[in-house]
Every structure is written in structure tokens, then in C-alpha cells.
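ok trying this again, last paste got cut off
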Amino acid sequence: MPYESFSRDLDALDDYDKKLWALGKLHAYRIQEEPFCHVDGDVFFFGPVLNAVLAEQVFCQSFDHNIDQYTEIHSYVHDHFNSVPIEFNATLDDKIKLINAGIIGGTDVELFRFYTKKAFELIDHNRDKIKDINVGILNLYYEQFLFSNILTEKQIEPSSLFKSNDRGQNFAAFHDIPGKSRYIHLISHFKKSTEFLELAVARLISEYPEYYDRVKTAFDKGWL
């Protein structure tokens, strides 16, 4: 998708710790005034696969079943942070339908404003605590866990691109494009895998050779 415009609104976050990478996404959500769809930078899709969810109140990529990943950070935040919005209160059990925000959005813009307000409250009131914790998990905590808990409390059922019981979904199935797979998300450790990075490069060369040449030239000249 070609870019038609760009914004420098993220400059407003210059004073935040750069490890808080999810804040940029949440800031983008909170300034939206119309229904929107956010797509992570490590997501690739082939064809109009997002059409199935774009008109929904709230949608996400898929649902995560690993509640245990939040256990340690959940306890630490409530035991050591100065101030924690009540929207972070939850019992870690299967009642929370955890989302994956590879794509996220919807028509309920006010809900996203409320959610992002609470996330920024947590960070703004506890900047002195950031250095003492696993910031990677903290990002997921205020991005995905918080939103999942808010949806649970408000009894809002989010739509997803992939079904809730689809635990075996391979989000890095480059070899299945464009037949069986039309959606790629290089989640977490996939981005550190030489194998998957080479597959991404091969796909770029195949689909958009002129873009590959431009990126390679920029890299060779030290612009990146």
C-alpha cells in the first residue's frame, strides 16, 4: 500500500524511554477520529484479507492462549508501581480473552481513547520503575493485556481475523503464499530468525524488485 501522507505526531513521545515501543502504537490509536485499522510493521498480507473485520466495533489479529506470560509482570506492577489504574486489575484466568494486536482497530474510537488513556496513566505515573523490569513484557502488558481486560469488563466481544481456537496457525508460512496463506506476521522471535528474514527478503525481491534495489542501495550507502 503506497503512503499518501505522513505525520510527525509521534515526536510528542520523544521524552519517553525508547524501550517503550508500544507507546507509539497507542498514541496513534488515541489521536484517531474515525474508524481505523493499525497494521504492525512486521505484518505482510496479500490481497484484501482485512475486509472481513474492518467494519467491526473492535477487531484484532487473533487470540492468545498464554495467560502465564503476564503472571510475573502483573504481580510486580501491582506490588511495586506507584499508581495503577483499576483497569489493570484482573484475575489471571481463562475468562480474559487475550488479543494479539498484529492488526487492531474498529469503529469504536471512544473505546480506544479510554484504553490508551489508561495505558499512558500507568506509564506516566511510574516512569521511575521502568528500569527495574522486563520492558518487553511490560509493552505487551499495557498494550494487549490491558485492552483484553477492558473488553472483558465491558463485555465486548472483539472480532478477529483468525478464530479463537486456531492454536496451530503458522504466522510465518511464507512457503504457503499465495495459496494457503495470505497473511504473515513475524511475531517476536521470528524477527530474529535468519531463516524467516531471508524468506522475507526473497518475497520482497519476487514481489517488488525495485523496492529491494532501493533498500539495498540505501543500506550500501549508509543511509539506514
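PB: full thing came through this time. The two ends are 21 Å apart (CA to CA).
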